[in-house]
Amino acid sequence: MLEHQCKPILFILNNGLYVVENYLNVDAVNPGYNVIPKWDFSKLPEAFGGDAFTATARTVAELRDAMRQAAAECRSRLCMIELIPGNPMDAPPFLVKTRAILEAQKKNR
To answer: What pLDDT is stored for residue 70 in this prediction?
Structure first.
């Protein structure tokens, strides 16, 4: 994108985990291999040789502010907003339900 002068607004969901794998693996308690090493995503555009507006949002208010800033900045450069959820294990209801089914199956083995 930077090479072709594209100027999108990128959203990076950074919960630090492979959440789906954590929910589906009922045989391991907090397996370390599901933890994603911490990256400084704000440095990513620089690594690819480009200039970008970057922001991190942990709350809805921070996200709104970052989006307002990005809307103005994206006319001239790439914009990247890192989203860090309050609950890293936040997942859709079907995934939580699937975990409950898998745990029940494990119990009945």
So the answer is: 96
pLDDT in tens, 56-70: 999 999 999 999 999
Res. 7 pLDDT band, cuts 50 70 90: confident
CATH number assigned to the domain with residue range 9-107, chosen from the 4 options 3.40.50.970, 3.40.50.11260, 3.40.50.720, 3.40.50.300:
3.40.50.970
Q: Write out the DSSP string of the chain.
A: -TTTT---EEEEE--SB-HHHHHH--SSSS-GGGBPPP--GGGHHHHTT--EEEEEESSHHHHHHHHHHHHHHTTTSEEEEEE--SSTT---HHHHHHHHHHHHHHHT-
Burial label for 3, CB within 10 Å (0-12, 13-18, 19+), is exposed
pLDDT at position 27, please?
Answer: 86
